[in-house]
Specification:
Bound molecules: pyridoxal-5'-phosphate
Strand content: 5-15%
Number of helices: 13
Strand order of the largest sheet: 2-10-9-8-7-3-4
Largest sheet: 7 strands, mixed
Radius of gyration: 20 Å
Helix content: 25-40%
Number of strands: 14
Length: 383
């Protein structure tokens, strides 16, 4: 067996009925939404088959198994000691962040975010009744990172919360322990609560080290994390994520969640997540090896076929943030690639104004698909 996970031929992938495979006509290669094309991890498949065969598809029961499984995974992967009781199941990461913001803020309060960032960050605040304050990432020849000076200026205006993307989608930055320590210092100084979206953490690629925010000294009093197996194990449709706290103060926020939230997590999501965290670690290693290979392949294909596109290989995720601004005056290279190459990418402007001239490409697919997509993109640019 090779170290890489296989991806099925396109004819088979196209039989999937998820959003990725149904949004566009069948001649379009879908490299937009953040879903991968690999098969499920064997332990996850096994528990799902078992559940369906036993007609075990009722309401979910996440306590205590979800907390125990996540605590095991976090300790093993990152040396993060989590109290299983401090892990609360939520429907998905979006629901977790919105419910946290509902408790942390009052209508009209301000919440800070750092574009370019995952598009729903622009929606979650308003859904919870707050206004947004943009504190863009810094961008220079070394890439993107948190702009701590701008963050201090923003925190000095006392936003109610800051939503951190750790690691950061779409730029693939894994914030360093030093950066996170500085962020926590500012949060404590100015009384700003940090909500850390850590959905991409298990997808930290070879070469980078992920720091869970709550392991930073002093963070547990001012921060709460939202975690999930759904990105790394491809379980988005099963609806299970978790809010993790590390202090009585932050646990008090979770205690204020609406009681009915407890019934809104998917049962198949809980059992798949428990299997992923407990028994999916060897498969995850294989996935990371595979994504590392795709990252290298994409770099070579871009260099050889699309040299006008610049990018910085991500430290985490299966998402590539491509700067297409040299391709021409068109602000939306996504339209060009969709119309002429029949390759669907995420338009950069969905991630904030700084995304103009960019697209986000999902390389969580097979080598054959990346090869075909970049060949078509190159022909579109040439023609
Ligand atoms: C940073 C980030 N947060 C949250 C999500 C979505 O998570 P969920 O489906 O659990 O709401 C994604 C999906 O790609 C993401 O990239």
């Amino acid at each position: 067996m090779t170290d890489e996970l296989p991806v099925r031929p396109l004819e088979e992938l196209r039989r999937r009925r998820s959003a990725k495979w149904t949004k566009y006509p069948s001649d379009v290669l879908p490299l937009f939404v953040a879903e991968m094309d690999v098969d499920l991890a064997p332990p996850v498949r096994a528990v799902l088959h078992e559940a369906v065969d036993a007609s075990d598809v009722g309401y979910s029961s996440a306590v205590p198994v979800l907390g125990e499984a996540f605590a095991e995974f976090a300790a093993d992967r990152w040396g993060w000691q989590v109290d299983p009781v401090a892990v609360t199941a939520v429907t998905d990461v979006g629901v977790g962040v919105v419910e946290l913001l509902r408790v942390l803020t009052r209508p009209g309060d301000v919440v800070a975010i750092s574009p370019p960032v995952y598009p729903p960050f622009f929606d979650w605040g308003p859904e919870a009744g707050v206004r947004l304050l943009d504190v863009p990432l810094r961008h220079d020849e070394e890439g993107y990172r948190l702009d701590l000076e701008a963050t201090e200026r923003a925190f000095a205006t006392h936003p109610a919360a800051y939503v951190l993307c750790n690691p950061h989608n779409p730029v693939g930055r894994v914030h360093t322990a030093e950066e996170l320590a500085a962020l926590v210092r500012l949060a404590r100084l100015y009384g700003v609560t940090i909500v850390s979206d850590e959905i991409h953490a298990p997808l930290t690629l070879p070469g980078a080290t992920f720091t869970p925010l709550l392991t930073v000294p002093g963070a547990a009093d001012v921060a709460v994390s939202v975690v999930s197996a759904s990105k790394a194990f491809n379980l988005a449709g099963l609806k299970c994520a978790a809010v993790v706290t590390g202090s009585a103060r932050m646990a008090g926020i979770v205690d204020e969640f609406p009681p009915d939230l407890r019934w809104r997590t998917g049962h198949l999501g809980v059992i798949a997540t428990v299997a992923a965290f407990r028994d999916g670690r060897p498969w995850l290693e294989q996935l990371l090896t595979t994504l590392d290979a795709r990252r290298t392949q994409l770099g070579e294909l871009l260099r050889d076929r699309l040299p006008a596109i610049s990018w910085r290989p991500p430290q985490a995720t299966f998402l590539a943030w491509l700067d297409c601004s040299k391709l021409g005056a068109d602000d939306e290279p996504q339209s060009l690639f969709l119309a002429k190459a029949k390759v669907a990418l995420e338009p950069g402007t969905r991630f904030g104004a700084a995304g103009s001239g960019h697209v986000r490409l999902n390389f969580g697919t097979g080598a054959h698909v990346l090869d075909e997509a970049t060949a078509r993109m190159a022909a579109a640019v040439a023609g």
